[in-house]
């Protein structure tokens, strides 16, 4: 079981600031308990133990803010437009610290790519990263956000503005196009969401 290296009261404050509900412990040894997504945290006198299917849902919030992470994103649409989903993963020197996927209704592949990018950036900001290196396998989206291509579609223009607003939250950021093999985790998450819809 992963143990967060932080003061239990400081950890409680971080969780509450992130909107996580914290409850009193179930035994005389537990100071408090919290749950989010697929993770549960239990605080003792000198440590916080995180368990569950996806401990990263809480571990990233418990660690000290700041630092740098890679954000991988991918959107998928079957039919273009058709049923669509997004996937994203946040990776730092500790490994995957956060990931997510979900279906987003019927839309085009490009809109799904933008939604995946937005969700990944929102999560990275929520986790408190100061610097992000963003990677995706959609050359169109990367070049539109960087200003190398125009976004003629009004819906894509709106999403590009939202992405730029999110990027400005970070002290430093980069955005690069990468081959699908390098973006494999985000791609798999998006496709798994569609497969199980």
TrEMBL record:
Residues 1-26 are annotated as: Disordered. Gene3D superfamilies: Ribonuclease H-like superfamily/Ribonuclease H (3.30.420.10). GO terms for molecular function: nucleic acid binding; RNA-DNA hybrid ribonuclease activity. Residues 65-195 form the RNase H type-1 domain. Transmembrane segments: none annotated. Pfam families: RVT_3. Coiled coil: none annotated. InterPro entries: RNaseH-like_sf (IPR012337), RNaseH_domain (IPR002156), RNaseH_sf (IPR036397), RnhA-like_halobact (IPR049863). PROSITE patterns: RNASE_H_1. PANTHER family: POLYNUCLEOTIDYL TRANSFERASE, RIBONUCLEASE H-LIKE SUPERFAMILY PROTEIN, RIBONUCLEASE HI. This is Ribonuclease H. It comes from Halogeometricum pallidum JCM 14848.
């Amino acid at each position: 079981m992963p143990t967060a290296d932080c003061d239990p009261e400081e950890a409680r404050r971080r969780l509450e600031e992130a909107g996580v509900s914290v409850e009193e412990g179930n035994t005389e040894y537990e100071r408090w308990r919290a749950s989010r997504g697929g993770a549960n945290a239990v605080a003792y006198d000198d440590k916080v133990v995180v368990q569950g299917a996806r401990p990263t849902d809480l571990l990233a919030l418990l660690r000290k803010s700041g630092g740098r992470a890679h954000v991988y994103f991918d959107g998928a649409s079957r039919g273009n437009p058709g049923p669509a989903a997004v996937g994203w993963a946040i990776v730092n020197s500790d490994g995957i610290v956060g990931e997510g996927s979900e279906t987003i209704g019927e839309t085009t592949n490009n809109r799904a790519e933008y939604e995946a990018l937005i969700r990944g950036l929102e999560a990275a900001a929520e986790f408190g990263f100061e610097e992000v290196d963003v990677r995706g396998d959609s050359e169109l989206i990367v070049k539109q956000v960087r200003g190398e291509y125009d976004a003629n579609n009004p819906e894509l223009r709106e999403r590009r503005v939202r992405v730029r607003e999110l990027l400005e939250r970070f002290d430093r950021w980069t955005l690069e196009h990468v081959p699908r093999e390098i973006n494999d985790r985000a791609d798999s998450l998006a496709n798994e969401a569609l497969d199980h819809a």
